[in-house]
Amino acid sequence: MAGKIKNSIVIPTFNEKDNIGKLIEKLKKVFPEGDTEIIVVDENSPDGTADVVNSFSEKDKTVRCILNDGIPGLSPSIVKGFDSAEGEFLGCMDGDMQHDEKCIPDFFKLAEKEYDMVIGSRYVKGGGFAQKWNPVRKLISDMSAFVARIVLGINLKDPTSGCFVVRKKAYNDVRNVMNPTGFKIMLEIYFRLKNTCKDYKMTEAPLIFRNREAGESKLSSKVIFQCAKMLFDLRKQKKY
Length: 240
Ligand SMILES: Nc1nc2c(ncn2[C@@H]2O[C@H](COP(=O)(O)OP(=O)(O)O)[C@@H](O)[C@H]2O)c(=O)[nH]1
Ligand SMILES: [Mg+2]
Fold this sequence. Notes:
Bound molecules: guanosine-5'-diphosphate, magnesium ion
Number of helices: 8
Number of domains: 1
CATH superfamily: Spore Coat Polysaccharide Biosynthesis Protein SpsA, Chain A
Structural class: alpha/beta
Radius of gyration: 17 Å
Largest sheet: 7 strands, mixed
């Protein structure tokens, strides 16, 4: 029987049947204590991703799959997952094995020790790429970081890593003003926390990023356009 849940890991998925089972098994190894729940928020994937997760849930009550039946998309799915999470600390990672699960326990430890938000970063010491990353993707990522700095004054080294932990209390402070569209919820939460008069403690911590082995990326030009629009919408709300 699982004890009290302290950490919640939310994993958004769309067509990740060949990755999600492997990832859950690996996460169970790096979080053996039973105080960490895994919530997969699936976009009604036609490939049966949810069935794979449900086969774990039958044996392990700390693993569950919920379907995103609201606004479609990555960010709304993560919000849905966070809303149903029991933990005091909320983590988010991709379901495609690109975020190295071995980095995640440190994010939770840092949050528990002192931080309101811990951002996985490939560009701090100890972080990086397990293999050479596609140069086009690297360019998109570098450009996004540059635009986030210019438009929103965000000085993160890696604002688009998509892998992070936030303290539920801090998340709840900004939950109701969030307008999550598209892909980059981590950036929105970070911006919203910075944009209040409270002094949240936030840091970047090393993240290793792997290349995708199975399935396909869902990043499209439509998604990139949505992200750019989000940055400019947020800019209008910038106070600090
Ligand atoms: N729930 C949900 N998950 C999504 C959606 N789009 C992508 N994902 C998942 O979000 C994660 C990151 O997406 P991915 O396509 O790998 O983006 P990339 O890493 O930027 O190429 C993966 O786990 C995807 O399965 C969506 O619309 N809804
Ligand atoms: Mg990916």
